[in-house]
Amino acid sequence: MTFTTPHPIKAIRISAVLEKTGLSRSQLYRLIQRGEFPKPAKLSERSAAWSEGAVDAWLAEKFGQ
Known about the structure:
Blueprint: E1 11-12, H1 14-21, H2 25-33, E2 41-44, E3 47-51, H3 52-62
Antiparallel strand pairs: 1-3, 2-3
């Protein structure tokens, strides 16, 4: 199976999301519950990650860019 996207998708784990956004873990999950932050993708039974592009887009929206 081949996937083609305009640009590669980079998956980042929660530690990188927290560092990138400056949010605490509890703040992040609160925003996800309210639908105000992108949900992570389940990569396996015990592993989840976010699209770095989705996190960057969320930050850009917050900064009005």
